[in-house]
Amino acid sequence: MAVRRVVPNLRSDAVQESREFYGLLGFEEVMNHGWIMTLASPSAPSAQVSVMARDKTAPVTPDLSVEVDDVDAAYAVMRDSGAEIVHPLRDEEWGVRRFFVRDPGGRVVNVLGHR
Hints:
Order of helices and strands: EHEEEEHEEE
Pfam family, one: Glyoxalase
Helix content: 10-25%
Organism: Streptomyces hoynatensis
InterPro entries: Glyas_Bleomycin-R_OHBP_Dase (IPR029068), Glyas_Fos-R_dOase_dom (IPR004360), VOC_core (IPR037523)
Protein name: Glyoxalase
Domain VOC: 2-114
Strand order of the largest sheet: 2-3-4-1-5-8-7-6
């Protein structure tokens, strides 16, 4: 299993204002589903930040997203370790397979893979 990217998720009700703010630092919108927006640096596309008003299908808003090449393997590792699964492994309508797990510090991590 390999990590493809890591993106901080900022919980905010000021999504559009955040786009403008981070735009001042050079970020540009690369994805917007209405409830989550991802901004990236045009010169370094892996430098990203997401702003979320809420999560569309999960009971909590994750603090961090980690994209992996094999989300099923990641799920098995986390489940077998005894880590708290906060949101079950599932396919989402926007083209990702994901689950949420709580880290030792209490943060919620969205572990995902694109289909």
